[in-house]
Amino acid sequence: MSFFSSRRAILKRARKAVGSLNLTAPSSIRAKVGLTDQDIFGHMTNTRYNAFALLALEDLLIRSGTKAAATNAGAAIKILREDVVFVRMLKFPDSFEIDIHLARAENETLVFEHEFRKKDKLITTGAITAGIVGADGATRSISSVLPDLAIEPPSVAGSDPTKLT
């Protein structure tokens, strides 16, 4: 299956499940390296790693309702940076899973961490930094958009969110 066929299937599933996931919950997608996803050395290209990581993020944003909420609030999520560390390489016809989660929300950015795994072996790890921009293209702070996006901060086990320390 090519990347584009995988993308179509994954996003179709995501659109059917809008609101089924909180943005702070971990999410995963499964895919397979296609024949056209590899370079002349038989490894999946760096571009495809980036594309699959962004696809996992898009799946999370759609299923959590964040993408629609941002659009309704007159904002959009903009990718600012992606970092990847390769541990092993994937090749045709490997099947793999990408796990992604919101690692932290900073003043003007959301940082998502992702891992590519093949049969529970770590293949690649990385982070995607995203910002939120308004319709005018100006950066918006996370705190000004959090209510619009209905993002709940991750809870710490055993802590009482009503008490400040």
Describe the structure.
This protein is α+β, with helices and mostly antiparallel strands and 165 residues long. It has a single domain, classed as Hotdog Thioesterase (Thiol Ester Dehydrase, Chain A, Roll), CATH 3.10.129.10. It is built from 4 helices and 6 strands; from the N terminus they run αβααβββββα. It has helices at 3-16, 46-63, 66-72, 142-149, and strands at 27-32, 75-86, 95-105, 109-118, 121-134, 139-140. Strands 1, 2, 3, 4, 5 and 6 form a 6-stranded antiparallel sheet that branches. α1 packs parallel to α2. The protein is globular. Residues 148-152 and 154-165 have low confidence and may be disordered.
Keywords for this structure?
single chain; Thiol Ester Dehydrase, Chain A; 4 helices; alpha+beta; 165 residues; disordered C terminus; 6-stranded antiparallel sheet
CATH fold description: Thiol Ester Dehydrase, Chain A
If classified by CATH, what would the architecture be? Roll
Major pleated sheet: 6 strands, antiparallel
Number of spatially distinct domains: 1
Overall pLDDT metric: 85
CATH homologous superfamily placement: Hotdog Thioesterase
Output the helix-strand order. Answer: HEHHEEEEEH
What's the structural blueprint in terms of helices and strands?
Blueprint: H1 3-16, E1 27-32, H2 46-63, H3 66-72, E2 75-86, E3 95-105, E4 109-118, E5 121-134, E6 139-140, H4 142-149
Brief summary of the model shown:
The protein has 165 residues and is of the alpha+beta class.
